Every structure is written in C-alpha cells, then in structure tokens.
C-alpha cells in the first residue's frame, strides 16, 4: 500500500486555557498534543481502564445507549456484509454500565467481538460531563459526542461540520484525505450506510488494486497521525477521515460545529434534491445546469450589475429570507 506523503501540522504542549477558534481558521487539519491532558476523564483513563469506566459511569443516566457489535472475524472493521445487503455488525441497546462491563471483560478474550459505541450525545446520556470537560469554543454552539470501544476500524467518511476530536483513552490512528480525493476513495451508497454517512469501500489495511486502482493516488495525498489520551485533532469540514482504534479500550469526545447559520439548511439535502431533479437529465442539460451552479453557487461572482434591492436569493440570505425560501421550496416539492 502506498504510504502517506504528508504530515499533519502539530502544536506541542497545547493548553486548553489558551485554545481558540483562531488557531484552526486556516481550515487545515491540525494536531494539538496534550490539549486535554487535564480533563478528569483523561486522568482516570491514564490511571486504568476500570478508573475510566467509573468516571464515565459517574456522569451516565440509565437510558440505554446504542452499541454496535461485530464478530471477531470482522477484525474490528465496521462495514457491510459480504454482498452488501446489510452490515457485518448488529446494533443493540443497553445501559452504559452494561456496555462498560462488556468492554472491560473483552480485554481478556482472545477472540473478543468488536464493541463500538459511536456518536453518543453527551448532553443526553452523560449530562454534567461537559461542565467538567470544557472546551472554549465560545463563538459556536458545538454538539458534543462520546465514542468508546475496543479495537475498531471505521472507513473513510466525511462530516459537514468542523470537528475537534479529543482522545480520552487508548490510542487512535487518523488518516485524512482532502475533499478533492473523493474520486479516488470509491465511496459507497449515499442512502444505505453503516452509520449515516457514505463511506469508502476500500479496506485500507488490504486495498485491492484491481478493484480500486486509484486508491493509491488518494494515499499519496493522505495525512496520517497517531494520537494518545490527552491529544486532539482538528478535522475541517468535508475532509475524509478513517479512524482506527488501536487499544483494547479507547475513547474519544468530539465537538462538532458548523461555520454557517443553521437556518441556511444542510447542503446534503441540496445534493439529494439535485440527484432527484438533475441527476437523470440528458448529458447536455446536466452540463447546462453545471454552468448555472458554477455561476451562482460555486464561483459567486460580483453582482454589481444588479441593484442590491433586486438581488433576491442571489444576494445575502438572512433568517427571514431563508424561511421564505424554504416555505417556497416545500410548497413546490409537495405538489
């Protein structure tokens, strides 16, 4: 397999007290070594797995969490089944206490199944944790999630929000690809996914060069880094990233936020609508629409030839205009 050629920018001895959004506004991935070393949950994890479990349980409520379980032969890969009619894991619901017990017990099993707790909202399932594990993201309103499990492999995928991922236990490897590497990652279905996001179908540990001949190009542009408990990584919006849990017990708390107002909507909805309305048009018409999208959406030329009061949806869209536009779209979609 081709090795990544580029390294991720790193800040050594980072301090959470001095962390600010301005440190990541160049929209490039960046690692902050030791950023959350002083978090109570990180201190607990460094003292031992049992201490980590006790710390998390201190914040947990009784409401069951969703856990993915994959057999040992999956080798930690959270993926589809062989013929892509389903998945190679089964979801289960259990109290966090039960999951933590299973996770600790699995450390001593040679053929342990993969246990994976993904994207669990801290505010709902561990209220109070954010109070003791603050992150100074004062200009945004991030969603905070917990990820926990044993050795696992999550295929390359992207997220629309910006992402600050903080390792709280164990060791994780991150491999990042810039958005323009999309054609070389062989992305699977958009609407049939293991966990809500489209993923690369390439097994990065053993890529098939005949089935995925361009993947080596993606690897030439990849950024790869290993993080330990206390380290954090900033993953910009739309960057593809695959994550590997390297420890028998590893955990992560991440913060997601968007750089545009929520009232402007989710671009993925626009993509799906474009697939519906444009994707099946004849080639010549699709190319014509591509020019329109380039003109009005992607290139965003100056509109000095149109008076500001007459620019309509081509101009600045505030919350009122967004509400009117959304209502108009819904009305047309429902016809």
Automatic annotation (TrEMBL):
Any matching Pfam family = Cupin_8
Gene3D superfamilies, A to Z: Cupin
* All residue ranges annotated as the JmjC domain in the record: 79-272
Q: What InterPro entries does the database record attribute to this sequence?
A: Cupin_8 (IPR041667), JmjC_dom (IPR003347)
The record's section on PANTHER family has: HYPOXIA-INDUCIBLE FACTOR 1 ALPHA INHIBITOR-RELATED, HYPOXIA-INDUCIBLE FACTOR 1-ALPHA INHIBITOR
Q: What is this protein called?
A: Cupin-like domain-containing protein
């Amino acid at each position: 397999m081709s090795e990544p050629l580029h390294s991720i920018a790193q800040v050594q001895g980072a301090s959470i007290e001095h962390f600010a959004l301005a440190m990541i506004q160049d929209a490039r991935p960046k690692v902050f070594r030791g950023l959350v070393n002083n978090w109570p949950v990180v201190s607990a994890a460094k003292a031992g797995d049992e201490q980590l479990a006790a710390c998390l349980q201190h914040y947990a409520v009784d409401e069951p969490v969703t856990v993915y379980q994959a057999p040992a032969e999956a080798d930690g890969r959270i993926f589809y089944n062989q013929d892509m009619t389903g998945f190679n894991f089964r979801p289960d619901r259990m109290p966090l206490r039960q999951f933590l017990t299973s996770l600790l017990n699995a450390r001593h099993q040679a053929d342990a199944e993969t246990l994976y707790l993904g994207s669990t909202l801290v505010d709902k399932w561990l209220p109070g944790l954010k109070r003791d594990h603050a992150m100074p993201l004062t200009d945004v309103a991030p969603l905070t999630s917990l990820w926990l499990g044993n050795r696992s492999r999550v295929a390359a995928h992207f997220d629309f929000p910006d992402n600050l991922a903080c390792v709280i236990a164990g060791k994780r490897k991150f491999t990042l690809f810039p958005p323009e590497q999309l054609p070389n990652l062989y992305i699977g279905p958009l609407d049939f996914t293991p966990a809500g996001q489209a993923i690369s179908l390439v097994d990065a540990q053993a890529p098939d060069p005949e089935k995925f001949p361009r993947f080596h190009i993606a690897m030439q542009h990849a950024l790869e880094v290993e993080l330990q408990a206390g380290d954090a990584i900033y993953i910009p919006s739309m960057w593809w990233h695959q994550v590997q849990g390297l420890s028998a017990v590893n955990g992560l708390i991440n913060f997601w936020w968007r750089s545009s107002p929520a009232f402007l909507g989710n671009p993925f909805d626009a993509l799906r609508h474009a697939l519906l309305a444009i994707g099946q048009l004849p080639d010549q018409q699709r190319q014509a629409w591509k020019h329109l999208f380039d003109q009005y959406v992607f290139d965003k030329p100056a509109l000095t030839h149109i008076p500001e009061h007459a620019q309509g949806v081509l101009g600045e869209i505030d919350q009122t205009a967004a509400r009117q536009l959304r209502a108009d779209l819904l009305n047309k979609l429902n016809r």
